[in-house]
Amino acid sequence: MAGPRANWKGYIKFGEVSCPVALYTAASSSERIAFNTLNRKTGNRVRREFVDSETGDPVEREDQVKGYEIENGQYIVLEPEEVAAAVPESNKTLKIEAFIPCSQIDTTYFDKPYYLAPDKMGTDAFLLLRDGMKKEGVAAIAQTVLFRRMRTVLIRAHGKGLIASTLNFDYEVRSSDKAFDDMPDLKIGGEMLELAEHIIGTKKGSFDASTFDDRYEAAVAELVKAKIEGRALPKKKAPVASKPSDLLQALRESAGIGAKATKPKRTAANANRGAGRQKAAKAAAKSKQPAAPPTRRAG
């Protein structure tokens, strides 16, 4: 059986050391359920075509060109050969610019992952790079032309080889400021925070991608099967968001305790602080008690 087809072949270079490598797709959507667009009235497939926005006439492929809008309705036309000439020339080399600690990686910039493996000769240099990065706990930043565009690539040790993730440029990643503009400045504490910590503690685990199912794909497959068999699927109730007034009760139920049940056990530090406060209170109460009256002698 033939192996996977490489998406790109070139060299990886660090310092004066270089070795041939091949890039393979690490994530693909080819296994997802695919739909065709149909005409509801006839049941026939719909064909997509480009039409002139003013005349409504179809535009053949050879008459389609790229254009950059400079004003409303005014464009600069870019011919295919002009666009091709503007693409940076590829030297087929992933030149490592720097090694960075893995803890500094901001996953917001991640685009697509690819497996990076040695191609034919050069395995020794490849293994040297892989094992060196593993030992130092670092990733490599490199740049090259991939798929007709200049790309920044993050390279990390992964199993027996390397994984190369293309990165979005800084101008492509939106700032989070606007997304969190309406976030209220509240501090949650007391029982609610203790319950949240308790729930998180009971749900701790490790990452295993095989345990996560694509429920959408499974649901669509079941829907198609039901349609073929002429049966209907039951409608599901939409989830309801917890109201602020019900949040404490929802946390208690999530933690497996009733409304009147005891709170989750406090940490040893909290328990010691509580015991210390109780002792201090008892000592203060004793010091404020009136002295006992002297006993009288019978006489």
From TrEMBL:
Give the Gene Ontology MF terms in alphabetical order.
double-stranded DNA binding
For this protein, the record's HAMAP family field holds: Prokaryotic_Ku (MF_01875)
Which residue ranges are recorded for the region named Disordered? 255-299
- Mind listing the GO biological process terms from this record? DNA recombination; double-strand break repair via nonhomologous end joining
Please list the residue ranges annotated as the Ku domain. 56-184
Per its database record, what is this protein's job?
With LigD forms a non-homologous end joining (NHEJ) DNA repair enzyme, which repairs dsDNA breaks with reduced fidelity. Binds linear dsDNA with 5'- and 3'- overhangs but not closed circular dsDNA nor ssDNA. Recruits and stimulates the ligase activity of LigD.
Gene behind this protein: ku
Key words of the record: DNA damage, DNA recombination, DNA repair, DNA-binding
Give the family, as the similarity comment puts it: Belongs to the prokaryotic Ku family.
Q: What is this protein called?
A: Non-homologous end joining protein Ku
Low complexity composition-biased segments = 268-290
UniProt subunit comment: Homodimer. Interacts with LigD.
